[in-house]
Design brief:
Layout: E1 2-10, E2 13-21, E3 29-38, E4 47-48, E5 51-53, E6 58-67, E7 70-80, E8 83-92, E9 100-108, E10 115-117, E11 120-121, E12 127-136, E13 139-149, E14 152-161, E15 167-178, H1 209-212, E16 216-228, E17 231-243, E18 246-255, E19 258-270, E20 273-286, E21 299-310, H2 313-318, E22 321-329, E23 332-333, H3 340-343, H4 346-354, H5 356-360, E24 364-376, E25 379-382, E26 386-390, E27 393-402, E28 407-416, E29 431-437, E30 441-443, E31 452-453, E32 456-457, H6 464-469, H7 471-475, H8 480-492
Parallel strand pairs: 15-16
Antiparallel strand pairs: 1-2, 2-3, 3-6, 4-5, 5-10, 6-7, 7-8, 8-9, 9-12, 10-11, 12-13, 13-14, 14-15, 16-17, 17-18, 18-19, 19-20, 20-21, 21-22, 22-24, 23-24, 24-25, 24-26, 25-27, 26-27, 27-28, 28-29, 29-30, 31-32
């Protein structure tokens, strides 16, 4: 059936086309030759899945044919305002399809001129791409891939094998990648609504185990320079394989503004759950995200090796086994910002109970912060204790957390150094106890059971806790940071990850 010289005209555009359709329609055979133009592209498409085009003149010229799953274009040229997309060639999506080659390129000088998504304007940045797509016997290759978005540029290739379980291979390189939102304004966090009763800190997130079984693939990623707001890292390498639901991120490594980090992770399906492991090693590490650490005087080491079994994050936490060791050194601390990453809001409670002076005057020179933990069947315990020292105060805590229930128990011992000046009437509580949950910790009683009231101890406790924790000798040490780190490493080292602690991500 042939339709020749068909003309469609409306106030926002016009189109002229020739169309030849093979009968019966089930043959999926057709030839087409289409020319369209107009002052408003919304004559073609206005709304789609939350996307709304802006008013712009347009033109479209295309000629080709369809034969089943085989599409051929002699040319395809689309212009919307200053944006252009061009293509030509043949794509064959049949599993036993014949060879095809397809060239695709595009240039959008400004995404902001294209339109909006869910009522939000796109960021004013350019987008361009070009690639050669070939297909043969169910395999689609995207070669000579080159793309640019704003200040970011990538090159590489991709391969897709069309089968019952598709297989995707990505090999991407970039000298510079600057990650910014496509939209001019950040998306507001979703409203959980009234009636959200879950007060747990660890989210009840189910692992996407079924989704992992629906795709096989390999990713090789190399980025010379990566930026996201204040985050700036170099020499990023990522290698990951997904097969039969098993995800093996065998290497993640990068250089930070100071130091180096290496990591690996594995998700191995086991019925309705999975065996999950994570290993991280960092040396002299600092990413410079904290306002008080832009000069990178504050650096640290980390060794993490954790394994667990479960189908959700909460199950993984409840069944976790392993070790976590982090040591942070040097630099100025203001408002104890980085310590809130480890202690959350409870740290403000601890400081206020030790002495109200610490809440109003928290700027200090950091000696060290040491976080040594072992995890056994979801029970996290400090080995021997968590330690935090500045030029004015030293705080050590025996830490115990049930990751299944999120209940916590901290025995906190405090000692002032010469840098802390207490005037008459000011109180320093040397022993306190923190209980509750990770989401809702509270200072309850001191280490001897004395009730804490109004930021001061009602009565003075004894020294039994000191004998148990061996902290008097620690606080009298000339170098308590070295002593705590030495004890922790001695207790945990044979369980540390065996990742190379090098200064290169290659």
């Amino acid at each position: 059936m042939s339709l020749d010289g068909i003309r469609l005209v409306r106030d926002r555009g016009s189109a002229v086309f020739d169309l030849e359709i093979g009968l019966p329609p089930g043959r999926r055979s057709a030839k087409f030759d289409l020319t369209a133009k107009g002052p408003d592209v919304r004559a073609l498409l206005q709304h789609y899945q939350g996307f709304e085009l802006a008013i712009a003149d347009f033109s479209l010229k295309t000629r080709g044919n369809v034969n089943g799953a085989r599409w051929s274009f002699q040319h395809f040229d689309l212009r919307i305002g200053d944006a252009r997309v061009s293509a030509n060639g043949t794509l064959d999506f049949r599993g036993n399809g014949q060879h095809g080659m397809f060239e695709l390129s595009g240039n959008v000088p400004s995404l902001a001129a294209i339109g909006q998504f869910q009522g939000r304007q796109f960021r004013d940045q350019s987008l361009s791409w070009q690639a050669i797509v070939t297909s043969n016997i169910g395999v689609v290759d995207i070669g000579d891939l080159h793309g640019r978005l704003g200040d970011s540029e990538i090159t590489g290739s991709a391969r897709v094998s069309i089968a019952e379980i598709p297989e995707v291979t990505l090999d991407i390189q970039s000298d510079s990648l600057v990650l910014v939102s496509l939209l001019a304004e950040e998306m507001a966090p979703p409203d959980e609504g009234e009636g959200a009763e879950d007060t747990r800190l660890i989210p009840d997130f189910e692992l996407p185990l079924q989704a992992l079984r629906k795709l096989n693939g390999t990713v090789n990623l190399r980025i010379g320079d990566l930026q996201r707001d204040r985050l700036h890292i170099r020499d990023l390498v990522l290698r990951a394989d997904l097969r039969d639901g098993r995800l093996d991120a065998s290497k993640l490594a990068f250089n930070a503004p100071s130091g180096h980090l290496a990591a690996r992770a594995l998700i191995q399906p086991a019925g309705d759950s999975a065996d999950v492991s994570l290993a991280v090693v960092a040396r002299d590490f600092a990413v410079g995200l904290f306002g008080q650490n832009q000069d990178l005087e504050m650096t640290g080491d980390a060794d993490i090796k954790v394994a667990s079994t479960g189908g959700s994050l909460r199950q993984l936490a409840a069944n976790a086994n392993g070790v976590v060791f982090a040591e942070v050194r040097g630099g100025q601390v203001a408002d104890m910002e980085f310590l809130h990453l480890f202690y959350g809001d409870m740290f403000s409670q601890i400081l206020g109970t030790i002495s109200p002076l610490l809440v109003s005057n928290t700027e200090a020179q950091l000696e060290c912060a040491i976080f040594p933990y072992e995890i056994s069947d979801g029970q996290l315990s400090s080995v021997p204790y968590t330690f935090f020292g500045t030029d004015s105060i030293r705080i050590s805590s025996g830490t115990r957390v049930n990751l299944a229930t999120e209940e916590l128990d901290l025995d906190v011992r405090t000692s002032a150094t010469k840098g802390l000046k207490l005037s008459a009437g000011q109180v320093l509580n040397p022993y306190i106890k923190v209980v509750g949950t990770l989401a809702e910790p509270r200072v309850a009683v001191d280490a001897q059971g004395t009730i804490i009231s109004g930021g001061a101890a009602v009565a003075t406790g004894g020294l039994t806790i000191v004998a148990k924790m061996g902290l008097e000798r620690l606080f009298g040490s000339r170098d308590p940071c070295a002593d705590v780190a030495k004890q922790a490493r001695k207790a945990l080292r044979d369980r540390f990850p065996d990742l190379p602690a090098t200064t290169s991500a290659q």
